[in-house]
Amino acid sequence: METDYLEIETKYNADDIDRLKFKAIAVSLNPTSFLYVEGTDVYFVKGENDFLRYRMAVKHIESNRSELSFKKKRTAANNNVRIEVNLRIDLNDPDLVSSFCEGLGYKRNFSIYKMADIYFFEDANIVYYTVTSDRNEQAAYVEIEANEVKGLTEEQGWEIVQKYEKILAPLGITAQKRKRLSLFEMYVKYETPEVK
Fold it and tell me: Can you tell me whether residue 73 is helix, strand or coil?
């Protein structure tokens, strides 16, 4: 059922946020665990908004986890509440994954390299990460994501997001500063029509 894969996630520009100040607040909340990861996300696109994200094996101690994901907006105007399904594809050769995506009609469009500090809590994950695009564009972001729990309602998810916004407000993380565009929308390369 669609609601079993409900993702409620907000993103904020963090170019002016000190990573160590973010870390100090996150650690003070006693996370259940912490993970630093870095790796490449490759986006395969079909049409304007239909895409698959191939998260290649990340570099960290615990595993070589990789996954193939699709995300779908619930409404055209909203990026914060989406359906997200993640399929683990560890140990698959990257060329095989690319061939699979292309066989479904998706075409490789862009990739980004992410370095992320992820703090896990009972009800949410909060993340500070930097992105370098394949066009060498660099940016930093903070994300708040309500944990995907079966039966979580949209209202409950928003309550969790707002709780962490209040805690992170001293860093400038507020509802007014939520980014409206997803990473996909920020970095996708649309083909320009030929001029005749």
Answer: strand
